């Protein structure tokens, strides 16, 4: 997937998402964010409190279904309004200065339980990283949290050279995912 100059239009993002449908996963440990995380990857775990009670949980789950963590972080997802379901392929676009990095991902699994809702997507061939990221809203007692768990490593030589910049972007976007969903819950 490309790093393109400027802002990428919706039609182009849709084309990139469609092209990625036939791409294989770029890592072997598909689904590992659900179980034990694999060795040899950088692991990130982040969490934010979304409030308390069933209303906060329902708003958080609904926000994930509508990609509000991503949209609130300034990350575009194509195709727009794609259903959160296993096998759905998306192109995730992040603007960095005067460039847009477009990364293909596929939803690996969905969690839809009484007190937990979320999904994980994994990187596809062409993504600058290899790995998986899960986004889960959960309720324990009255407390509702949004948790992100990810494992990743650079996919190629160029990604390794640019690793410090990519890592800074990753950390920033993850923080914005957290606050993006929290804002969605609070404003609903």
Description:
- By secondary structure, the chain is α+β, with helices and mostly antiparallel strands.
- Helices cover 31% and strands 38% of the residues.
- It has five helices and eight strands.
- Strands 1, 2, 3, 4, 5, 6, 7 and 8 form an eight-stranded antiparallel sheet that branches.
- The longest helix has 25 residues, at 163-187.
- The N and C termini lie far apart (34 Å).
- The mean pLDDT is 93.
Helix-strand layout with pairing:
Layout lengths: L2 E3 L4 H11 L21 E11 H13 L2 H5 L3 E3 L10 E8 L2 E15 L2 E8 L5 E12 L2 E12 L2 H5 L1 H25 L1
Antiparallel strand pairs: 1-5, 2-8, 3-4, 4-5, 5-6, 6-7, 7-8
Quick structural overview:
The protein has 188 residues and is α+β, with helices and mostly antiparallel strands.
Distance between the termini: 34 Å
Please give the share of residues in helix.
Answer: 25-40%
The SSE string, one letter per element, is EHEHHEEEEEEHH
- How many distinct helices? 5
pLDDT averaged residue by residue: 93
Let me know the largest β-sheet.
8 strands, antiparallel
Which regions have little confidence, pLDDT < 50, spanning 5+ residues? none
Number of strands: 8
Any idea what the radius of gyration is?
Answer: 16 Å
* Principal-axes shape call: globular
Strand content: 35-45%
Main structural class: alpha+beta
